[in-house]
Request: fold
Amino acid sequence: MCNSNINLAASWRQAHRGQCRFFAAARQTVFAEAAFYNCADAAPRRHFPSHSAQGEREKGFGHTPFYCYDRPTFDWKPLQTEKHNSMANHNHTYLPIFLLCLCVFSCLATGCQKNKATTKTTFDYTGTAEQLFEKATYAFDRERWNDAEKMFTSIRRQYPYSRFAATAELRSADCLYSQGSYAEAVVAYQHFLKTYPTHPEAPHAMFRKAAAHFRQIPKDFFILPPSYERDRSATREARSALLFFLHHHPDTQWTPEAQEMLVETENALVRYEMYVARFYLKRRQLKSATLRLDGIGRVYTQSPLVPDAMLLQATTCLRMGAKARAQSIFNDIVTLYPAHHQALRAQKYIAELSAGAPN
Reply:
């Protein structure tokens, strides 16, 4: 009987210890839940038996219920502060990582989009340039200069490596020329010739450049002074450009027109030189007048006004008393321009000088 009681007591003690371990694990779970929610009132109020070793010794195997809260033996404020600090540290740790990931994702997205655009542009490069060039050519053929110039400029800027870029640049300059923007056209033709010096249409660009200079020569207008009395810089530039074109391309479809422009240009320059010489003659500055007229026949070979300038120089030399120089100039007029009307006057002067009675 005694052994049975001892065995029963041992069994009861073992069961009680298992129950205590169970309730201890449950209490730890409650504490963990309270820490998670960070609220003391969030944890439930439960009854737990007393399972301390001292209670077992004092009260035997009985158990006295007591109320257990989330924080029965320590203050939760330090735990809460520690939790907030931990969360703050986590936030400070995760924020740079988040920003880094965002930047990497943005770069990848941009790169993918750029690759996609590049692939599309590479695929449609020639086709799009050709379509735009056809539209621009259509507008150019119908003399819609402004629209055509904008489209040609777009081709040159957006598709600089296409086979239409060179022609588009030339047509853009042609549009400027046709609109009367001669100064801008000169710059455009010059850039084309510098970029594409061996282009098949380089002679056309060279001629148009000279023609644009020619169109900027001042014209006569009844309100304004005569053109030969004004600045001749545009005239000299036009003459230089025309001579350059005729020297490099003497046999083109634009050669006759260029020669006519050259004659008009040299006529304007000869008139200007004669105007200055007469200005000196009015002030009895004979030497300055002859120096101004000297060499006109050698420089402006295409102008029909050269015999007039030479005759004026010869008569000025007679007034200065330089008969030998005057007779030489008269002989040049008769020899070089025998069909000119000034050749007859030169022959008369020669006869008078030979007779020893010049006027």
About this structure: The first strand starts at residue 46 and ends at 49. The chain has 14 helices and two strands.
